[in-house]
Structures are given as C-alpha cells and as structure tokens.
Amino acid sequence: MQKIVPNISVDCVIFGFDFKQLNVLLVERKLQDEKTGETLIDDWTLTGYHIFEDEDFDTAAARILKGLSGLDNIYLEQFYAFGKVSRVDSPKDNIWLKHQHEGFSSRIVTVGYYSLIDNSTVTLQLQERNVKWFSITDLPELGFDHQEILNKALEKLRSKLRSEPIGFELLPEKFTLSQLQKLYEAILGTTYDRRNFRKKVLQMKYIIPLNEKQKAVKHKPAQLFIFSRDVYERTKRERFDFSI
Amino acid sequence: MQKIVPNISVDCVIFGFDFKQLNVLLVERKLQDEKTGETLIDDWTLTGYHIFEDEDFDTAAARILKGLSGLDNIYLEQFYAFGKVSRVDSPKDNIWLKHQHEGFSSRIVTVGYYSLIDNSTVTLQLQERNVKWFSITDLPELGFDHQEILNKALEKLRSKLRSEPIGFELLPEKFTLSQLQKLYEAILGTTYDRRNFRKKVLQMKYIIPLNEKQKAVKHKPAQLFIFSRDVYERTKRERFDFSI
Fold first, then answer.
1. Smallest Cβ distance to B163: which of A55, A184, A243?
2. pLDDT (tens digit, 9 = 90+) per residue, A26-65?
3. Of the candidates B54, B80, B111, which has its C-beta nearest A85's C-beta?
4. Per-residue pLDDT tens for A139-168?
C-alpha cells in the first residue's frame, strides 16, 4: 500500500453545467458515534484526499476524483494552494481526520484543482460515500475551509470564462444565442439584456452565423451559430494584447 | 526558534522592470568543499525557503523575501504550487539541502509567488548571500526546478498584463506612448508597430491624452497621457464580459 503524505492534500472543485444552472460536486461527510448512535458529523466536502509519497499533484487529483465519484478523464486545472494554519482545526474536522486516518498531520495544506464539465453527460458511480451535484446557489454546510476553496475556484472560473472561450465546450456544436446567453448568465451569476448580448456577440468574428435554424422546437426556431477556434486563434494576438 | 515544515517551501519570483528590460531577482547558491576548496555548487536560485509550522504561505513568502533581499512591503501574489516528486533530486540539490538543514525532507513541494516592481526604485540590502537582478533574456544556471517555476511565473505575468492594467503602476503618472510601448514590449518579449500600437491605445477611453508635452528632453517632446483607474473601473464590465 502506498504511503500518504500526512500534511499535503488536493481538493477538486468540479463545476457542472446542465444548461440551466451551475452545480458543484460534493461528497457527504457523515459520522455517527458507534455506541450511542449520535450524529457527530453531517455535512459535505469537496472531493479531496491526501497525496501519496510518490505522486505529483496532477496525478493525485485525478486519482482522488475517480475514487470518490467514478469520474475519469476530466481535465483538471490547478488554481490555488491553501495553507492557513488553522484550516482543518474545527472540532468536527478533528473528529473526522482522526476517524479517517491516525497518521494525518494536525496541519494540512491543500492544492485546489477545478474543472467545468457538462454534468448532464456524466454518470457518477457512487462509491462508499454519497456524492452529489448541488446548485451553487443552494449549497449545504461545507466542512474544513471548503467554502473558501469553492469561492476562490468560482472566482477563477468566472475570470477564465471572461478571457477564454471555455464556454463553447459545454454547448452543442451548433447553438443559438439564447443558449450562449444562458451559459454565461449561469456561470457569471448575472443577467444580460437580450439585445445588448446579441449585439456584442455578433461583433465577434469567431462566432459564425449559419444559414440554418433550429429544428423540431415548439417555439419559433432560432438561428444557429458555430464557434470557430480557427478564427479565434488567428485573431487572438490582435484582440488580447492590451485588452486591458 | 520556530520550527520549519520539512516538506513545504515557498519561492518568490520577483520581476523588476527598469524602463529598458525585464529582470528577475536571484540568490547565489555557492558551496565549496571545506577541506579541498573544490567548488561543489555555483549557480543561482529564486528567493525561497521553508515555511514555519505556525505560518501561512503569504506570511512566509514576505518573510523569506525580506530575509534574503531586504525587500519589504512588496505585493506578492500566489501563482502556482509545484509538486513533482523529483523536483529537488539532482546531486547538487541534494548536497545543498543537506548543507542547509539536516531536517529537510527528501521530497519538498513549493508554492510560487510573484511580483512585478520598478526595480530602479528599490535597494537590495545584501545579506549573507549574494542577491542580484538578472535580465530574463540572459539568465545564469538555476538550481532545483527554478527555471520551470520562473517560466510559469512569466507566463502568468504576461497573461495578467494582457488582461489587467498592471503596467501603469510602473510608469510615471504622466507618460508617453513610447514609454507605454516599451513596457509592453519588454514584459511580453515582443515588438509592436509604432503606428498600430498608438491606434490601439488611442481607442482606450481610460488612457487620457493631456494638453501637455514632455519637458527638458533632447528629442522632440512627445504628448503626455494619464491612466484613469476611474474610467477603467466604470467601463470594466462592458469590456470584460465576453472579451473572449
């Protein structure tokens, strides 16, 4: 059996978009007193655990996510390391850590990873513990400093969505401007005026209108668009330098 | 004396701009065999060391930078954690670590911090070890995985300069467009066509032309500009959302 590093862990913030809202993947942390049956802990955490002695951060993140949720081949990106001295010091955290493993350090630093996936296309393989998607606007109580880690990940995700075309990976190849607007609104937690949004998007050379409309929809079919990564890359320098 | 954490360090990548080029602050790593006088190690590293048991990452970074260079009150931003299993495993790194402290772990992870300062305005207070600015286009051999850490920091700095107005903090309040161009060219490691650069900048509402020219210069005095953070913040949302 591989030895864990007692004072270093990774935590994965898996954001899932389901075309309606932004969700996050959490694991239940539940513990009852073996004698009295009293509930000692009943909250949720991010998917995380300690790294192994012979394992780098990226490998650990992928292994831990897979072990807790069954999710495999998810692109994970490191976003921040959390090192506050008292980050796992609450009484509940103490009980949990002792219950899990006697060898854990009393001070643990963690490296945060995040990802954005279409959570309607993946299946969670439930393991020993309960794993669930929660809307980020309706979260349960989180253990450790995981609310802080989640907030930081959300900040990074939003900043990335504003500066890189990561949103298109969640849309069908041909999409409507309403779908695009919905995606940005859900992730950025805001609303846009429909007309201004369309005006802005239509200026982007890499979002290309097709001579094609939606089919088999109940409402009036809307025009379809595609995202051209090719045009995006070609015009990148021109747009990015001094997009201050 | 405070106890160090044997397997966790921080490293600071201090970028300095001197109105000509982009520099980075390095510490000499020199070691001679006490008996034979033979040079065992003669290279450079970033300013870094281990964190204390009761110290968070931010505090450690500021303390270590001050201890090695005398630099105080520098805004440091965490940018990445480095955890490759063999990152401090070279023979030279092994000798150095043993020489420095018997208690170090053989596997050390490090949290990277970076900063961009006007290095012409700060004075290095040389401590026990030699500390110097090096042009990033003319670097000496670096110990550990510090070349990799430096490359990552540079990538983050460039990305930040392209999406936030961090450059203006290095310019005088009133600056010329040539000075602004020089700054972007030095940091991004590129050159711009003067006319295109001016055209692009003049579209930015938050770079405001003054009815004022340079004084006491040998060449034809150029027009002066100021950066308005106020206008920048006011027009931020409009610009940032979907600057994809």
1. A243
2. 999 999 998 999 999 999 999 999 999 999 999 999 999 9
3. B54
4. 999 999 999 999 999 999 998 888 788 888
CATH number of A4-162: 3.90.79.10
Q: Which CATH number fits domain B166-240: 3.40.50.9100, 3.40.50.300, 1.10.10.10, 1.20.1070.10?
A: 1.10.10.10
**Residues of A whose CB is below 8 A from B5:** 7, 107
Is the minimum CB–CB distance between B231 and chain A shorter than 8 Å? no
Contacts with A153 (C-beta within 8 Å, 6 or more apart), sequence order: A13, A15, A79, A80, A112, A114
Question: Which tens digit of pLDDT belongs to each residue from B58-115?
Answer: 999 999 999 999 999 999 999 999 999 999 999 999 999 999 887 899 899 999 999 9
User: So where are chain B's domains?
Assistant: 4-162, 166-240
Residues shown for chain B = 244
Give the predicted TM-score (pTM) of the model: 0.91
Residues sharing a CB contact under 8 Å with residue A42, sequence separation 6 or more, in sequence order: A29, A30, A31
CB contacts of B183 in chain A (<8 Å) are: none
DSSP tag of A21: -
Quote the tokens at residue A160: 């990335």
